[in-house]
Design a protein that fits this description.
This protein is α/β, with parallel strands linked by helices. Helices cover about 45% and strands about 15% of the residues. Helix 5 links the parallel strand 3 and strand 4.
Length: about 300
């Protein structure tokens, strides 16, 4: 994995994605006692950073593969991202979704031209159903995060942020399956100026925090968190990158996530989803340690169910 790989990735996907804005807030700087730069992936196409990784992965396919389509399993943002990325390139997308996925996300997948195949809401069922589609249709399986092309794509958000603000001391990002933070950590390593990457997770789904401690991929017994995008476990490709390049993971309580989310809605006038508020909540929880630093925060997405807001 080289600096050039990341640069090439950004060049390839640029025609298909938005270069999202970086917003600042004097008030939030005062509250956090730091200088904050929010990379707004909630304004990305389909509403989340996952558009980057999905687009890059689809662009890497051969013509033969493109002709047979792609398949993934995802309950949320990657399902939408892959549907739209495939549609942009005239490719068929089969999306395996658990039966309990939010209706708003199912509707979005359909709107982007993805074909939904429902399954029972367990990881095993998701994987088996996707494997079946792969066999029947000859479609190429694309993993939502455990895929180097996807990780590189996700890393372009931090790359753009560092192009705009090369002297950041820290970048905070949420951790679900690890695609975003692994890509962010690679971008900071290659393009940052001693820029440290900090992960953030809910206490209710702190598998990555425990994985860093034990040195092996841990799973979650319960995933009782409002941050629905962060309930997944790390992958075999994302975990070693996190081990090597992420300095720490800060965990936050549910009420801290909700408070941070509300603050971003109220003060910045932007729609973000709960998972997206976790890095900001982590910074506020430990703010004494980060005083007077320049901090980038990746706001991962804005696909929130407006009928089901926590405040």
């Amino acid at each position: 994995m080289t600096k050039k790989d990341l640069q090439d990735c950004l060049q390839k996907i640029e025609p298909y994605i938005h270069r999202t804005p970086v917003l600042t807030s004097r008030l939030l700087n005062e509250i956090s006692e730091a200088e904050l730069f929010f990379k707004c992936e909630n304004f990305q196409r389909m509403g989340a950073f996952k558009m980057r990784g999905a687009t890059h992965a689809v662009l890497q396919l051969s013509d033969t593969q493109k002709a047979k389509g792609v398949v993934t399993h995802s309950s949320g943002n990657f399902a939408q991202a892959l549907s739209l990325a495939a549609k942009n390139l005239g490719i068929k997308a089969y999306i395996v979704m658990p039966s309990n996925a939010p209706q708003v996300k199912k509707d979005a997948v359909k709107g982007y031209g993805g074909e939904i195949i429902e399954c029972l809401p367990t990881i095993e069922d998701r994987e088996q159903t996707a494997a079946q589609v792969q066999k029947e249709k000859g479609a190429t399986f694309l993993h939502p995060y455990n895929d180097m092309n996807v990780i590189l794509g996700q890393g372009t958000a931090a790359l753009e942020l560092l192009q705009d603000y090369p002297d950041l001391d820290y970048i905070f990002a949420p951790v679900g399956g690890g695609g975003l933070i692994a890509g962010t950590a690679l971008a900071a390593h290659f393009y940052g100026n001693n820029c440290i990457v900090v992960g953030s997770e809910p206490f209710e789904a702190d598998d990555a925090y425990r994985s860093l401690q034990s040195g092996k991929i841990e799973t979650n017994e319960t995933i009782n968190t409002i941050a629905d995008g962060l309930r997944t476990n790390l992958g075999t490709i994302t975990f070693p990158i996190i081990q090597q390049y992420v300095s720490e993971i800060i965990r936050v309580e549910e009420d801290e996530i909700i408070a941070a989310m509300q603050l971003l809605w109220e003060r910045m006038k932007i729609v973000i989803e709960p998972s997206c508020a976790v890095p900001f909540a982590a910074l506020l929880r430990e703010k004494e340690r980060f005083q007077h630093k320049k901090i980038g925060i990746i706001l991962s997405g804005g696909n929130v169910d407006l009928k089901n807001l926590p405040f």
